[in-house]
Amino acid sequence: MTRRWNMSLWVGFLLVLAGFFSYIPVFAQFPITRDFPWANLLLFFAGGILLILGVTQAFGHSDLYRGKIFGPILTLLSAVGISFFIYVVFVMAKQVPASAGAPHVGQKAPDFTLPDQNGKPVTLAELVSSPPVGAPGAKANGAVLIFYRGYW
User: Fold this and answer.
1) Which one is predicted more confidently, 72 or 134?
2) In Å, what is the CA distance from 109 to each residue of 10, 61, 122, 143, 148?
3) Nearest CA among 1, 12, 15 for reference residue 57
4) Residue 134 pLDDT more than 70?
5) Strand, coil or helix: what is 65?
6) Which long-range contacts (CB under 8 A, 24 or more apart) does 65-72 make?
7) If you average pLDDT over residues 74-98, what whole number do you get?
8) Chain CA centroid to CA 108, Å
9) In whole angstroms, what is the distance from residue 69 CA to residue 95 CA?
10) Furthest C-alpha separation in the chain
11) Residues in CB range of 130: below 8 A, 6 or more apart
12) 3-state SS track over 112-140
């Protein structure tokens, strides 16, 4: 009786390769799959299940299926690739370098001028200046400044 090719091994390995190499050119282009790479993790999960199934077939039914040599090799390569992907995406990508020029909490912001919704230039000093206490219709003015940090 001839042994059959263990397609679970090869399809599982191809799914892991697709998950590994498709992140940058395909899934990183869209925020829904870039912010959390769920599509790649699903490909890894499906590939891992097929690899485990293929290794089980290769060693459990070695008279029917091939793969006693390639099964562990492909599984090990897949595990290394998945580990590297998870390390790069979830650990290294979150490492933001220190910025010497970033504002600190409580630090006074420099005065600047930006256009308002009507296109009229407004300075920060105009926004935070308060009218004299007791003046008719006086209310305190303020501004909230939000700084987004990243290296884009």
Assistant:
1) 72
2) 59, 71, 15, 11, 15
3) 12
4) no
5) strand
6) 65/3, 65/4, 65/5, 65/6, 66/3, 66/4, 66/5, 66/6, 67/6, 67/9, 70/6, 70/9, 71/6, 71/9
7) 91
8) 33
9) 39
10) 101
11) 138, 140, 141
12) CEEECCCCCEEEHHHHHCCCCCCCCCCCC
Q: What is the pLDDT of residue 19?
A: 96
Neighbour-count burial for 76-102, b at 16+ CB within 10 Å, e otherwise: eebeebbeebeeebeeeeeeeeeeeee
CA angle 143, 145, 150 (to 5 degrees): 170
Residue 149 is classified by DSSP as -
DSSP-assigned letter for residue 94:
G
Which residue carries 């040599």 as its tokens? Answer: 69
Higher pLDDT, 115 or 100: 115
Mean predicted confidence (pLDDT) in 105-130: 85
Question: CA 113, CA 123: separation in Å to the nearest integer?
Answer: 4
SS3 label, residue 71: helix
| Residue 28: both structure tokens together | 């990183």
